[in-house]
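Raw record, unedited: Interphotoreceptor retinoid-binding protein
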Amino acid sequence: PDPGTLASVLTEGVKNTIGDSRVKVTYEPEYVPAVPPAMPDIPPEQLAGMIKATVKVEVLDGNIAYLKIQHIIGEEMAQKVGPLLLEYIWDKVLPTSAMILDFRSAVSGELSGIPYIVSYYTDSEPLIHIDSVYDRPSDITTELWSMPTLLGKRYGTSKPLMILTSKNTLGVAEDVAYCLKNLKRATIVGENTAGGTVKIDKIKVGDTDFYVSVPVAKSINPITGKSWEIDGVAPHVEVPAEDALETAVAI
């Protein structure tokens, strides 16, 4: 008689059958599929305001840059608000001696943002194959490569880079952390990440208010030949998430 309970029972059954915690059954009578806003309708200043709300930037003692990112923006938005991003974020952190990227509450992002972020911490040449993403609905594999040119200057490859993670770090942020970890460019500090996916679809079950959330794409790292999905990204230095910043600063 209770649809919510039924959804929970079905979810548990699916998890126990296929061993994939990302597959969920939910009961959502009010669900409306999210439609991303059309890019041209939002002025750059307003977009920059939205980005500022999801990014915190500071320079800590010891000339350490601290960037807290909750959403990784995609290439299209980065192109549109690039100059404002440089002024608000990048120009402040470029002169620092080391950087901490805080992904502990990063739970969303765009796939096209992965090469953008990774490229700021690598050299312009040679180009690096950083990820391959297989999309099941289209049966297409997309290779993600580092970018030869970027807005503003690169942070480079010599200054220390720390990435803070928690058990809630999800999706695209996990991919960025995994790429930089396996390029041996970053030290991961914190907790094992959630083990999400780069893309999930919510599929309506017949003519009901039940939905099944299913991963529809898979990330395969060219260095490891494996994925961070399901198992998550293991930190180099494992500490509770709330202690990760202090630990990274000490390192």
